[in-house]
Design brief:
CATH architecture: 3-Layer(aba) Sandwich
Strand order of the largest sheet: 1-4-3-2-5-7-6
Number of domains: 1
Helix content: 25-40%
Structural class: alpha+beta
Order of helices and strands: EHHEEEHHEHHEHE
Radius of gyration: 16 Å
C-alpha cells in the first residue's frame, strides 16, 4: 500500500547560486536519518511532477521519462510513485551492505542513511530514438541526479553520485523488474 509523502515546498530560503557554489561530493555521513519531509523534497526535486501536464522537475528527452527512482534505507527499499508523490515498500530490511559489496566496497553506501537509486527503462526512450535513446537516458539521469544533489545541499544534506557497481548483481539484490536497469546510486545524508 503506497505511503503518501508530505507536499514538497516550491519556495526556498537558499538561493540556487549558493547551493551550486557549496555543493561537494561527500562520502561520510552521520547516522542521523533523513526526515520524511526531506525525502519528499529530494524525490520531488529529482523526478517529481511540476505541472498540470505531468512534466517533471528534471528534463527528459521527448518527455518519455525512462527513470524509476528508489529509496533505500536501513528499513527497506521503497519505489517512488511519481504521479501519487508516494512511496511503496518493495522490500523489507537493510540491503545496503549487499549493495556495498557489489559497489566495489564503497563505504558511503552503508554510511548514508538514505541511498537513492535511479533505474532506467531504456525502451521508453529507445522506441522513439533507437540506439541514440540510451545516450538520452544517461543525460536524463544526470539531470535528475544534479537536481537531487542541489536539493540536498539546500536542505543541509550532502551526497555523492556512484556509478561504480555491478548492475546485474544490484538488480538481483533488489529483485528489480526485468525491464529496469540500475544506472546511478546517490547516497545522501548529513555530512560527518
Amino acid at each position: 500500500m503506497p505511503s503518501p509523502l508530505p507536499d514538497p515546498r516550491t519556495t526556498g530560503t537558499r538561493p540556487l547560486e549558493e547551493a551550486i557554489q557549496s555543493r561537494r561530493s561527500v562520502r561520510e555521513f552521520t547516522s542521523d536519518p533523513v526526515s520524511e519531509q526531506d525525502v519528499s523534497q529530494l524525490l520531488w526535486a529529482a523526478q517529481g511532477v511540476t505541472g498540470d501536464q505531468g512534466y517533471r522537475a528534471a528534463p527528459s528527452a521527448g518527455a518519455f521519462y525512462p527513470l524509476e527512482t528508489y529509496l533505500i534505507t536501513s528499513e527497506g527499499v521503497d519505489h517512488y510513485l511519481v504521479e501519487a508523490h508516494a512511496l511503496e515498500r518493495v522490500a523489507e530490511g537493510d540491503v545496503r551492505p549487499a549493495i556495498r559489496a557489489v559497489s566495489f566496497d564503497q563505504s558511503c553506501i552503508t554510511s548514508a542513511p538514505a541511498v537513492f537509486l535511479f533505474t532506467a527503462v531504456y525502451e521508453r526512450t529507445c522506441r522513439e530514438y533507437g540506439g541514440r535513446g540510451r545516450m538520452y537516458v544517461h543525460m536524463d539521469v544526470g539531470h535528475a541526479a544534479q537536481n537531487l544533489l542541489l536539493q540536498a545541499e539546500t536542505l543541509g544534506l550532502a551526497g555523492v553520485p556512484v556509478a561504480a557497481f555491478d548492475p546485474a548483481d544490484l538488480a538481483r539484490i533488489l529483485a528489480l523488474p526485468d525491464e529496469e536497469e540500475p544506472v546511478y546510486l546517490v547516497p545522501i545524508g548529513r555530512p560527518a
